[in-house]
Amino acid sequence: MQNFTSVKDVKHLQNLVNKAQNFKIKSMITNKLDNHKTLGLLFFNPSLRTRLSTEKAAKNLGINVIILNANDGWKLEFEDGAIMNLDKAEHVKEAAAVLSQYCDILGVRSFPTLTDKAKDYADFVLNKFIEYATVPIVSLESAIRHPLQSLADLVTIKEHQKTAKPKVVLTWAPHPKALPQAVANSFSEWVLAAEYDLTIVCPKGFELNPAFTDGATISNNQETAFEGADFIYAKNWSSWKNYGQTLYPNESWMINSAKMALTNNAFFMHCLPVRRNIVVSDSVLDSPNSLVIEQANNRTFAAQAVLSEILNHQ
Ligand code: CP
Predict the structure, then answer these.
(1) Does the beta carbon of 48 lie inside 6 Å of ligand 1?
(2) Residue 105: what pLDDT?
(3) pTM of the predicted model over 0.85
(4) How far apart are CA 178 and CA 279, in angstroms?
(5) Alpha carbon of 86 to ligand 1 centroid (Å)
(6) What does CATH list as the number for 149-295?
(7) Measured in whole angstroms, how far is the alpha carbon of residue 51 from the centre of its chain?
């Protein structure tokens, strides 16, 4: 694997899921690469899970970690040919090339603008790093995808699935802010690649970009979609069609125990952070069927699998 930015970078999906599971089972000491490598983590946006789980994964493998909060320093210029006489002190051309001198792998987190659809869906910032870095790039959540989260989610589903092709429902849920589509896009791509039965349910106007959902059943009826589900994955996202907009209030879409009762005793999943009693009721989040903490735990092993895969192929 050269870069890790989407499921398309993964040659053998089940092998990568198995590798993550093996890292969870085996002691970290037996998996140390011990090769004096350095991972740089560059955050343009905040993180709790991605930052700590990826750092822990690297340390489990014996890899050094350098973390840079990109917004603490000067702003980077990304436009080619820019005349840099305003507030941006360094071009990504130099920044990515310099970071590549200190690091063997670079992780980048960069959220979308939610105002410039074309730029966001070109994954502008991530692709500039891919263009100008000379080392592999790992997405720590880009404008349109969150592959480390999706890999951890597949590990979590594998640990709990009772049938070979479980019914997985990705449901839109309410949120007071306009949020990216990245987690939902990515979850859809990975679940479809794993050949599970995927239904995506959302209020009218919140349908995701079809490029990410081809093969899924798309519905606007949450209660019907929940029937027979083995996994309910809740997430808010802003409209892709009316780009970045929250459109209208939909409090009735919150996940609660009555809705979970329609399912096949489904497990509840969410990538976190989650707003209690807005996205999902306490009763569901605190129930034994909630997998949210296991998902967060599996982030470490997903990152470990990805980092070792990249370094083993260098
Ligand atoms: N799920 C997730 O990516 O969490 P953070 O934003 O805290 O990294």
Answers:
(1) yes
(2) 98
(3) yes
(4) 13
(5) 32
(6) 3.40.50.1370
(7) 12
